[in-house]
Amino acid sequence: MGSQRLAVTVVFAINGAALGSWAPRVPALSEQIGAEPGALGLALLGASIGMLLAALASGRLIERFGSRTVVAVSTIAACLFLPVIGASGSVLALGIALAGLGASMGVLDVGMNTAGVVVERRASGPIMATFHAGFSGGALVGSAAAALAAASGWSPTLHLTVAAAAALVVLGLVIRSVPGIAADTRTSVASPRAGGAAPARRVALWLLAAVALCSAIAEGASSDWSALLLVSEQGMSEGAAALAYSAFSLAMAVARLAGAWVQARIGPTWLLAGGALCAGAGLCVAALIPVPAAGFAGFVLAGAGLAASFPVALSLAGEAGKRTDDSGGERELAFVTAVAYSGFLAGPPVIGGIAQLTSLSVSFVAVGLVAALIAPAAIAATRALRREQAGERAATSGPGLPS
Q1: Domain boundaries, the chain
Q2: Which position has the higher pLDDT, 393 or 377?
Q3: What are the residues whose beta carbons fall under 8 Å from the beta carbon of 331, sequence distance 6 or more?
Q4: What is the CATH number of domain 193-397?
């Protein structure tokens, strides 16, 4: 099990490194293709759309082929698209390449989380957050390498080709240890709560999706708007303001490493609820107190508070689809992930619209309230899951059925 846990952590890190590799090169890519901000924004939208559409279809792919195969194929596809992004010569070419990368990473996201759920079940303990810490660590390494490549004068094509090659080598070293046997639906039986209704018809899954959605909106706002908030509202220099998101990311990575320990002691519901209140308070502090130190402290609180939301929501969604042979959860994971991606897609422009009508400070207060909504959604989701479990027990012990 140790080798599987390490392998899945490395796959999460590869995914994070891919994001951390291309995103910092957007200024160079914009100059390379001569794109205006509006046109560049449309091209970047391709990645989000690709991820959302692919996530919707990924559950059935994993059910049929297993998470190991899906992780391998989607990672290879993502690595093939990275050099294509670097070589793009027009807005259209960049948009198509980003859509392909987004689709590959959307499938990879669900595949690696499914593999993570399998390892977590075998470990009999909450370890999903540590996998997501691997993603955060990979993103930090990828972004640092991108900064070094840019400082060294590497073109996006050369840099992203080297990054893709390195990712493929690392994948080859660990892929055999990634769990991923496709479920045999002829002998594997889903529980009544998992198999009785499609994910979109289950209240518990909608509530877990709400947790992931609110987390995605808050995380997206912090990544896209934190520096501008501190520059425009608090008069901070651009260099110092850029470090705010670094502090947010570092706090999230550290909190995810500690998340398994905390969850084992207080349970997922109170971990999500406490983190939501911490994140909401942190974002409001950053927005309302015009002191640079308060801005940094607020984003550190937000990063730590949001750290568990996405991984715990996915872990609970996977558990809600568990089969008798410990497989299952693919469609449930895909459903929650797709809803969360809509937050990454719609959140930033909505926040920009609020800021246009009022101010960035007001928009971040709104984001703080969205983050705080994770708490009631998590409590309601836990109660809905308990009701489903009670219904399952009643169904299996009813008249004419073995108890």
Answers
A1: 1-178, 193-397
A2: 377
A3: 59, 60, 63, 198, 199, 321
A4: 1.20.1250.20
